[in-house]
Specification:
The protein is α/β, with parallel strands linked by helices and about 750 residues long. About 30% of the residues lie in helices and about 15% in strands. Among the domains are: about 180 residues, Dimethylsulfoxide Reductase, domain 2 (3-Layer(aba) Sandwich); about 70 residues, no CATH class; about 130 residues, Barwin-like endoglucanases. Strands 5-4-17-16-15-6-7 form a seven-stranded mixed β-sheet, with helices on one face. A four-stranded parallel β-sheet has the order 11-10-9-13, with helices on both faces. It has a four-stranded mixed β-sheet with strand order 24-26-25-29.
Length: about 750
């Protein structure tokens, strides 16, 4: 007879995508009995997508690593934590001694941003390592937006987002929030909010080569040729000037460079770009007028605008259009969130700053400029497999799978086998970590406390929410793992007192920020350790904080922890000039780097349109490669299909449900065909993150339906020259029926 196990309810922020939905988790002992949306959550109000329920599968996944692994004679064997750290120290330090710190490369992946401990303690590891060879998933995703925002507003994360709950006009490019629930825009239940906007008379217009799920529910879908966004937006801005629709309003004293923008878009009249865009001039002009005449409107662009050869220009022109149409920093327009903690533009002197700098150093082989402290991840393979002074000889990867996510993974995979040593911190033995000499397992998200460090800085409404651990920890916390590695790299050894090291780091941080008040500040948080201590410091010193007792009603960790539904901090409010950190104290509408690059676009305007190009796509039951091993997301129809327009299917001899061979230069993949009117003729689409058929992994669910790796088609040297972002969209390919 089974003993009765008391049921309890725990609350948790979903750790899988950017929507940050609040979850209500029904627990029986340490077992997850069920998950649903938390109805009382102040931010997501009970909304949840299938990824929320998949947290149970993630926590219970038998393939998830729970013990360190060390490779012996080509095979992984289980090891103790002490053995693993000793092996890391034994193997890594001699490489640094012989070849210098730049001989160690560092890669972080997308899941890092969903883990408070990883995100807050990774910088300590990077500083202790001191290598210039830092790479991340940012140059596969959002670096163009970060660069353009930094140049215009003075900080990499000063990114405006649509204030959808008060908007009546949204123009979207390269985005599918009906599936993603926002990206660089945290907006749970986008569908519900978009329907409410339309019900009050608003309009949603989607510009995309695919009639995606968002376009299907929009008022208008405008099909654009991939890679032509820069021409479309330049023509939109051209029209605002030509038809005297520019309305700076109250921002006029805070904007520099309007005339330079007018001059640089002069060659891009709608009639000049129509053929290249595949959009007639009348439509471009009508969209410009609608944007300008909307009382509360915004332009928003996402992944598709970043993963193309003019990614930085496209994201710059999006914000230029918002400024010129009078919609930046206005209710219902594109606004700046004010997060409760960790947001750089809420710290220091408001309204002016140092701005950003790029190119402070360059990569060894391709001479690619550093952007936001990192090199393009497309440079990683060449930094390993091309010999010479400064060659990367060892690699540390943290929650990343670049063999699948980066272009030309075959070359990268071969390069990883040439390393003298590789360390991975990961929850899976996947396509990348299989190359490691040591794998340290990450934790289940239910084992650690959580606060979203990054996403409140991108949220459609200001809020704060903290999640306590749901189940007891079964291993060292991820922040403790990073501190142990930091101690090794700093010369303290694998057996260093990481508690004392953490105290030392915090004392240094507080000393810089609080000056003579540092002892009192440290005293106020002395009962806390790790990420909780850093969070309490950030909350109490933040824009809503209690200022360590000086504002008794203000925010602190204790107050937030006692409120599992979160605390609503209100609608977005106008923040210019407060958020600006440019040296001029103005919005720099015409940064020199971007104005100069427009010449490249102008010269390219007459380039012939390729016969066939490929683009990626998002799916609601997928969020990069690491979610493909979760049964609740993997079940259902086969989803790694290449979508093809009927006209293209007919001319290339393709059949629905059949196999297609897709080729780019000497790279080829095969995928199942899905014929659909949703595609623009001349464009095919395949989701990314698949390709789970490589040997040496432990992904029992994903390997049953491996899919095709879209990114294996792409040239790792093809990237936006300003941001270093990989070009993963609009790439010419050939397609034929597979034998």
């Amino acid at each position: 007879m089974r003993a009765h196990v008391e049921e309890k309810i725990a609350y948790r922020t979903c750790p899988i995508c950017e929507a940050c939905c609040g979850l209500e988790i029904r627990m029986q002992g340490d077992q997850v009995a069920g998950i649903r949306g938390h109805a009382a959550d102040v931010f997501s109000a009970g909304y949840v997508c299938p990824k929320g329920a998949a947290v149970k599968d993630l926590h219970e996944d038998p393939d998830r690593l729970r013990t360190p692994l060390i490779k012996r004679d080509g095979k992984f064997v289980e090891a103790s934590w002490d053995e693993a750290f000793a092996e890391i120290e034994r193997r890594l330090l001699p490489i640094i001694a012989a070849h210098g710190r730049d001989a160690i490369g560092l890669v972080i992946g997308n899941p890092v941003v969903h883990k408070m401990g990883l995100l807050l303690y990774f910088p300590r590891l990077a500083k202790a390592l001191g290598s210039k060879n830092f790479f991340s998933a940012s140059t596969l995703d959002q670096m163009p937006k970060q660069l353009s925002a930094g140049l215009m507003f003075g900080h990499w994360l000063t990114i405006p987002v649509p204030d959808i709950d008060r908007s009546d006009f949204l123009l979207m490019l390269g985005a599918n929030p009906a599936v993603s629930n926002g990206s660089l825009w945290t907006v749970p239940d986008f569908r519900g909010r978009a329907k409410a906007m339309r019900a009050r008379g608003g309009r949603l217009i989607v510009v995309d080569p695919r009639r995606n799920e968002t376009a299907a529910m929009a008022d208008q879908h405008v099909a654009i040729r991939p890679g032509a966004d820069v021409f479309f937006l330049a023509a939109l801005v051209h029209t605002l000037f030509e038809e005297k629709l520019v309305m700076l309003g109250r921002l006029a004293p805070h904007v520099a460079g309007v005339e330079a923008v007018r001059e640089v878009v002069a060659p891009f009249a709608p009639e000049q770009v129509a053929a290249r865009c595949g959009i007639d001039a009348a439509t471009i002009r009508e969209l410009a007028r609608s944007l300008a005449n909307a009382e509360r409107g915004a332009v928003y662009g996402r992944l598709g605008t970043c993963t193309q050869e003019y990614g930085t220009l496209v994201n710059w022109l999006i914000d230029v259009a918002n400024v010129l149409a009078g919609h930046l920093d206005e209710p219902g327009g594109a606004m700046f969130p004010k997060a409760a903690a960790f947001q750089a533009n809420t710290m220091g002197r408001p309204g002016q700053g140092r701005g950003i700098a790029t190119g402070r150093h360059r990569s060894r082989v391709s001479n690619a400029p550093e952007v936001f402290g990192e090199f393009p991840i497309g440079c990683l393979a060449e930094e390993i497999d091309i010999a010479g002074e400064g060659q990367v000889r060892a690699l540390i990867t943290i929650a990343g799978n670049p063999v699948l996510s980066a272009p030309n993974g075959a070359r990268l995979s071969a390069a990883l086998d040439q390393l003298d040593f590789m360390l991975s911190l990961d929850i899976y033995l996947n396509e990348t970590s299989r190359h490691a000499d040591v794998i340290l397992p990450g934790t289940s998200p239910l084992e650690e406390a959580h606060y979203d460090v990054a996403f409140p800085q991108l949220a459609h409404r200001n809020y704060a929410r903290y999640s306590k651990p749901v189940v007891p920890a079964t291993q060292p916390a991820e922040w403790e793992i990073l501190l142990r590695l930091t101690a090794i790299l700093a010369g303290g050894g694998a057996k260093a007192d990481i508690g004392a090291l953490d105290d030392e780091f915090v004392a240094e941080d507080v000393g810089r920020m609080a000056g003579p008040q540092a002892p009192a500040v440290l005293k106020a948080v002395e009962a806390l350790r790790g990420p909780d201590r850093l969070l309490d410091l950030a909350l109490r010193g933040g824009p809503y904080g209690d200022m360590f007792g000086m504002k008794p009603g203000g925010l602190n960790l204790a107050k937030l922890a006692a409120t599992p539904e979160g605390i609503d901090l209100g609608a977005l409010e106008p923040l210019i000039p407060e958020v600006l950190r440019t040296p001029s104290g103005k919005i720099e509408l015409a940064p020199d780097m971007l104005i100069a690059d427009m010449a490249r676009a102008a010269a390219d305007l007459a380039r012939p349109v390729p016969d066939l190009v490929i683009v990626g796509r998002r799916q609601v039951r997928s969020n990069n490669s690491w979610t493909h091993n979760l049964p609740i997301l993997a079940k259902g129809p086969y989803r790694c299909t290449v979508e093809v327009h009927p006209r293209d299917a007919a001319r290339h001899g393709l059949k629905h449900g059949g196999r297609a061979r897709i080729v780019n230069a000497n790279r080829a993949i095969e995928a199942q065909v899905e014929i659909t009117e949703a595609m623009l003729p001349g464009v095919i689409s395949l989701p990314h993150g698949w390709g789970h058929d490589l040997p040496g992994t432990r992904l029992s669910v994903a390997s049953k339906r491996p899919g095709a790796n879209l990114n294996a088609l792409f040239d790792e040297s093809l990237r936006d020259p300003l941001s270093g972002n990989a070009v993963l969209s609009g790439v010419p390919v050939e397609i034929s029926a597979a034998g």
